[in-house]
Amino acid sequence: MGIEVRNLTKSYGTNRVLHDVSFDVKPGELVGLLGPSGGGKSTLLRIIAGLDSADSGEVLLDGERVDHLHARDRGIGFVFQHYALFRHMTVTDNVGFGLDVRKVPRDRRDARVSTLLELMGLAGLGPRYPGQLSGGQRQRVALARALAPGPRLLLLDEPFGAVDARVREELRRWLRRLHDEVHTTSIFVTHDQDEAFAVSDRVMIVQGGHIDQAGSPTEILDHPATEFVARFV
């Protein structure tokens, strides 16, 4: 799935968070939105997902405008920083939740959940509850739940921010391997430079509601386009 964002502007009261932002993401690409807190990264992600609306501008998926559609009708998976798992549900039921909502037949649902748990390195943990898992395991359950319905696009908002440094490094290596296997077009938000450069095909530096530069990690490190980018990286 390709993504086109055209001239997005968003304000909260007198605070303009996004200023005429435009960019494209190619099908199968993994793009990192990197920048300081408050720069507009998460707002941009939420508008693409349909969890928030822009004051002006367009969002297109595979050439079709979706900014008028409800979040559930966009075919997008969203992973939050703090997992947002259902504590009263087992791992299996958490992962299968989106399939149950779509009334997928039980045998297909169970097969899909089993495949994802295996892919995520969670085989055998299906009967457990979130409170019985480590932080890294909970985040992988959240990713499996987002992938279960087969989303056209995967969005991740600071996906590793709630785990410690050692687990974060392990998870970002794992996310890169996962992306290379499933090839879902993905955008993830982070303020961690090492994370963005280690995981992303392409990085967009976001600050002050603008995209200062977009390019491969090597391009940004070797040829920063602005003084802010040079100082930030």
Overall geometry comes to globular
The biggest sheet amounts to:
6 strands, mixed
| Gyration radius, rounded | 18 Å
Instruction: Estimate the mean pLDDT confidence.
Output: 89
Count helical runs: 8
Point out poorly predicted stretches.
none
What proportion of the residues form beta strands (DSSP E)? 25-35%
Summing up helix and strand content along with how strands pair, one would put the structural category as: alpha/beta
H-E string: EEEHEEEHHHEHEHEEHH
Strand sequence of the main sheet, in spatial order? 6-7-8-3-9-10
Helix content: 25-40%
Quantity of strands, as a count: 10
Distance between the termini: 30 Å
Sum up the structure in keywords.
233 residues; alpha/beta; four-stranded antiparallel β-sheet; globular
Describe what this molecule looks like in 3D.
- This protein has 233 residues and is α/β, with parallel strands linked by helices.
- Helices cover 36% and strands 26% of the residues.
- It contains 8 helices and 10 strands.
- It has helices spanning 41-49, 91-101, 106-119, 135-147, 165-182, 193-199, 217-222, 227-232, and strands spanning 3-12, 15-25, 30-34, 56-61, 64-65, 76-79, 153-157, 185-190, 202-207, 210-215.
- The strands form 2 sheets. A 6-stranded mixed sheet has the order 6-7-8-3-9-10, with helices on both faces.
- Helix 2 crosses helix 3 and helix 2 (91-101) packs parallel to helix 4.
- It is globular.
